[in-house]
Design a protein that fits this description.
CATH architecture of the largest domain: 3-Layer(aba) Sandwich
Bound molecules: adenosine-5'-triphosphate, magnesium ion
Number of strands: 10
Shape: globular
Distance between the termini: 31 Å
Structural class: alpha/beta
Number of helices: 10
């Protein structure tokens, strides 16, 4: 379980997260939505402490990493996370095999001789085979996304954080990635946090949706309830997203 208490994060010119508190329970698929530049990436970067908040607790399975500088503790907790970067961030000079295996060295004690088998398994889970020796430049956008997904689950994390998993993808590939997210959760029982500005996606796949606005979660609820929210920010966002309030 991830317990977030009174999380505050600022950049020099503005406070992006204001006193955010939320519990993400084991097995949940928790989505954070909100317009561009509102602080969604900042939120998940704080969860795995790629960014250090000014104050607040981030308790992962009982370990508070909110403000710790203990690198061993951070490394230990980070082992339970997979992370899909907003930018995809595959290494162009490395093969698919090397990309997917990249974290195994830091996140697991698996010997190098075991990497190829794991990579093949994870690629199969995302529906790819015989691509191990290709470089990212030889892959389509959708295939790159699948390889990034395979990399984020390679070390079999307990938690996975997806930053804009469908942005920039065509509708068919978006549907594919959506199914993969649900599949990963079902097959590997991964607790999942998705940040996205795709409200449609969030409402379809999540157990709970949180709307980030003005630095706060102005609504946190199950999709059906979320659709009926009376919050002004939510209503506006629903309209912009062309979704009806059923
Ligand atoms: N390292 C940084 N230094 C200074 N400002 C930053 C930094 N990272 C983010 N910001 C600012 O914080 C705000 C929130 O950024 P963030 O990337 O979290 O938004 P986002 O909701 O993920 O946006 P998008 O939907 O476009 O990905 C933005 O105004 C951004 O310019
Ligand atoms: Mg972002």
């Amino acid at each position: 379980m991830i317990e977030i208490r009174n999380l505050n994060k600022s950049f020099p010119d503005k406070q992006v997260l204001k006193n955010i508190s939320v519990d993400i329970k084991d097995g949940e698929l928790f989505s954070v939505i909100g317009p561009s530049g509102i602080g969604k990436s900042t939120f998940i970067k704080c969860i795995i402490r790629l960014l250090k908040p000014e104050s607040g607790e981030i308790v992962v399975d009982g370990q508070d990493i909110g403000r710790t500088s203990d690198e061993f503790k951070l490394a230990r907790v980070r082992r339970s996370f997979g992370y899909l970067f907003q930018e995809g961030a595959l290494f162009d000079s490395l093969t698919v095999l090397e990309n997917v295996a990249f974290g195994l060295k830091y996140l697991t004690d698996i010997p190098k001789s075991g990497y190829a088998k794991i990579v093949r398994e994870k690629l199969a889970l995302v529906g790819l085979k015989d691509v191990e020796n290709l470089k990212p430049a030889e892959l389509s956008v959708g295939m790159k996304k699948r390889v990034s997904l395979a990399r984020s689950i390679a070390a079999e994390p307990k938690y996975i954080l997806y930053d804009e998993p469908t942005t920039g993808l065509d509708p068919v590939t978006t549907g594919m990635v959506k199914d993969l997210i649900l599949d990963m959760r079902a097959k590997l029982n991964i607790t999942t946090v998705v940040v996205t500005h795709d409200l449609n996606l969030a409402l379809e796949i999540s157990s709970r949706v949180a709307m980030l606005y003005g630095g706060e979660f102005v609504e946190v609820s199950e999709p059906a309830k979320f659709r009926r929210s009376e919050n002004k920010g939510v209503k506006e966002f629903m309209e912009i997203s062309h979704l009806s309030r059923k």
